[in-house]
Design goal:
The chain has 88 residues and is an alpha+beta fold. It contains three helices and six strands; from the N terminus they run E-E-E-E-E-E-H-H-H. The structure holds zinc ion.
């Protein structure tokens, strides 16, 4: 099985951490941190906010290095959630 990459935050997630649709089925496009009950958990976040969030994460947590955060940031514009804002 290929690893799931969240189409909002760009981070890999396990099957257990899949987001949920309105009917409580699993959504393999988004992680539970970004998508819950058929909605984004944070509606107002922009791609800039997401970049900042990733850098903050890298700064405060050992699981991710700044380098890894930058790699994720590079793929953000190609993710489903941000593709539209990228065009605008
Ligand atoms: Zn996510």
């Amino acid at each position: 099985m290929k690893p799931l990459i969240c189409q909002s935050c760009g981070l890999p997630f396990s099957e257990k951490m899949r987001g949920t649709n309105r009917d409580q089925s699993k959504n393999s496009d988004y992680c539970l941190g970004c998508f819950k009950n058929g909605e984004y958990t944070d509606h107002h976040i922009t791609i800039q906010d997401m970049k900042k969030r990733l850098l903050d994460m890298a700064r405060h947590h050992d699981e991710m290095s700044i380098e890894e955060a930058h790699q994720v940031i590079q793929i953000l514009p190609d993710l489903k959630r941000w593709k539209m804002t990228h065009i605008l």
